[in-house]
Amino acid sequence: MQSYEEFSESQVKILQHFVTNIDSNVFVLRNLPEVIKGALFSRYSRSSLGLRSLLLKEFILNEETAFESIAGMAGGEEASDQVAAIHKAQNFYDRILDGYGDDSIGELGGAHLAIENVSMLAVKAVQDARIGGSPLEKSTRYIYFDQKVNGEYLFYKEPVLMTSAYRDLYVDTCNMLFDTYSKLIPPLTEFMEEKFPKEENTSKVAYGAALRAKVLDCLRGLLPASALTNMGVYGNGRFFEGLIRKLNVNNLVELQDLGRQSYNELSSVIPSFVRRADANHKNQVDFVRFFESMQEEVKVVTKQHCNFKSESMQPGVKLIEFDPDDVKKVAAATLYANSNKRLSDLRDYCKKLSKEDIARIIDAGCNSRENRRHKSPRALEHAAFTFEIMSDFGCYRDLHRHRILTQERQLLTCGYGYFIPPEIVGSEMEEQYRSAMDQSKKAYDAIVGELPEEAQYVVPMAFNMPWYFNLNLRALQWICELRSSPAGHPNYRYIAQEMAKQVCEAIPEFEPIFRFVDYEGHEELGRLGQEEKKVEKLKQS
Questions:
Q1: Which of 241, 270, 305 is the last residue of a domain?
Q2: CA gap 253, 433 in Å, rounded
């Protein structure tokens, strides 16, 4: 549709630099810093003007906004000049953001934050901030982690450990793990080449990539939680404010440092969105007081109530909570949008239906799906499940990335055994692998009594850890179908398959919902198919 707004020739010339078109009702902002976009949209909700008119009147032509310096209209602006201009005009933007909305205004601007040379433990803390952020981490599947810089392996030198009596034990153990990882790459690669020889018509590039992924999938368990990695995070202002707050109150020095550094860097581009996470801001001070008090009370009641004996946890997946009546809730919700009935009446109605009728309603919501990317209706969100999982830390790292669910883990430990890649069982490589795990456990056991949180850094990724998932059926469908695909790591493929199987056994009516779960074992090079597709796409481009 055509816009009702009219602009002069000079105004059009200005606006063309900042919007994708002048005439349409649908357009995109461009060449604008986040602080301006956020303030513009927050003001937009309380104005009768169109966004382009508002941009002209209250921002471009308003001296208080420092618009030319921030947006670079004057040309030739240095980055430092732009940052200075943002801070000079910060009172204006703070006033706009505070005056025209609530916390949700913080979602109207964002930033890309690069975080380099942080431990795998720290990365999990960042990824645990679920909503509003999109993290992407360096892969242990495609990148070798045996590089050295100035003759040293890349792992986090945890300050508390490095100034403790455990310094040498910590450093020596981490070096041993990296040494073992590095030494096993050549023999395991040779073994895999013999077990899965390249077929004549298979691309050499695709085969090499799939082979490398298979080898590194097997050996990643040797990497300690202290191994350094890189990640990029795109997030909105509200996400970053919440993330920094949580990092600031973490007990680990690395995460406190990461919180401070993130705040400093984000303050140069979106200061108005993260200002309340400043250590001296009253909101942050209040949060610290609340968090520390809450943590202390939880620890007291945990100590009071968790001194009983319980069954020892074993590796695997266990469905521990579900409601058989949820199938009728899903059926009622499926009918709701196309009816004129109350949800409560539809639920009562579905309670009286036969299993066949319920099955037909459930099928109606999933029969048309042709692949896993065809999303099921929201009716599936009326069924909920809780799983308790015991698997290796490497597997947790992969599954933890699914943020639209409730999940919680306990501290990393060496107390639940470790995963051994079946590919090395019975070989000399198994002996070296087991020796590395045993040495790591001895180091962990020596440290954990005095420094339980810092001891996590020495735990290799192969060691098992407990965590739980609480999620709805729609999220579960997505995870199980995505993570069971042949290209995935065998360990999380097993978990995805098990979660789907156990739900189908508990509530058989839900079985059709998991139609794209891959239950096959796939002993071959799981990534080969995906790598061949990538090679074909490159040829066609």
A1: 305
A2: 30
Together in a domain, 359 and 259: no
| 523 & 411 share domain | yes
pTM metric for this prediction: 0.87
Reported residue count of the chain is 541
Whole-number Å distance between alpha carbons of 25 and 476: 38
In the predicted model, residues of the chain with pLDDT beneath 70 are 1-3, 45, 70-103, 522-541
Supply the DSSP string of 18-79, one letter for each residue.
Answer: TBS-SSBS---B-S--HHHHHHHHHHHTT-SS-HHHHIIIIIIT-GGGTHHHHHTTTS---H
The letter for the amino acid at 184 is L
Q: Which domain holds residue 55?
A: 9-108
Cβ(131)–Cβ(403) below 8 Å: yes
Beta bridge partners of 111: 235
Longest pairwise C-alpha distance within the chain: 79
Spatial CB neighbours of 4, under 8 Å, sequence gap ≥ 6: 50
Residue owning tokens 């933007």: 93
Q: Judging by beta carbons within 10 Å of its beta carbon (0-12, 13-18, 19+), is residue 299 exposed, middle or buried?
A: exposed
Residue pair 253/158 in contact (Cβ under 8 Å)? The answer is yes
Q: Residues 120-179: pLDDT tens digits?
A: 999 999 999 878 899 989 889 888 999 999 999 999 999 999 999 999 999 999 999 999
Same domain, 529 and 396: yes
Looking up tokens 């009147």 gives 57
Dig out the tokens for 308 from the structure.
């009983």
